[in-house]
Design a protein that fits this description.
Layout lengths: L5 E7 L4 E4 L5 E11 L8 E10 H10 L5 E14 L5 E14 L36 E3 L12
Parallel strand pairs: 4-6
Antiparallel strand pairs: 1-3, 1-5, 2-3, 3-4, 5-6, 6-7
């Protein structure tokens, strides 16, 4: 029996990077942070994950996902290699998003709450409406198969 399944819930660390392949497929690269509680006397551990979303899920990420947004994903781990600008072979592990669930948006920051150590503080758009407890949160599933050989990076 074989199984490659990942479920993560965390916060997006920067705006998704949206790209188009030469064959016309949209791809979103998302950085997600998850925290692991270490106990009273230890510092919590933060792990950063590289997510890749394709086509319909990439559209949703482009339209709705912002830095600080809480999301839950289901997907699979994919390992690949590429050559950098200097011709050095690099290896990377990514999570291919097969399902995306939107969670809480980041809270808007006011001028007195801004962190001076950050170069950019997220400001929520005026039309921001917090998700209420009884609201339906959309779940997106990608049903298209992806040809990995068509990825230009």
């Amino acid at each position: 029996m074989n199984l490659n399944k990942v479920i993560l819930c965390g916060r997006v660390t920067k705006a998704p990077e949206i790209l188009m392949t030469q064959s016309g497929h949209k791809v979103a690269k998302i950085s997600l942070a998850t925290n692991e509680y270490q106990g009273k006397d230890k510092q919590d551990k933060t792990t950063f994950h590289n997510l890749v979303a394709w086509n319909k899920i990439a559209d949703i990420a482009q339209q709705f996902v912002v830095m600080g947004h809480e999301i839950m994903i289901e997907g699979r781990i994919d390992n690949r290699s590429y050559e950098d600008k200097n011709g050095v072979k690099k290896y990377i592990s990514e999570i291919i998003v097969e399902r995306l669930q939107l969670g809480n948006k980041p809270r808007p920051k006011t001028a007195d709450q801004a962190d001076p150590n950050l170069t950019s503080n997220y400001q929520a758009p005026k039309e921001y409406q917090p998700i209420k407890e009884n609201d339906d949160i959309p779940v997106i599933e990608d049903i298209d198969e992806i040809d990995i050989s068509s990825i230009p990076f």
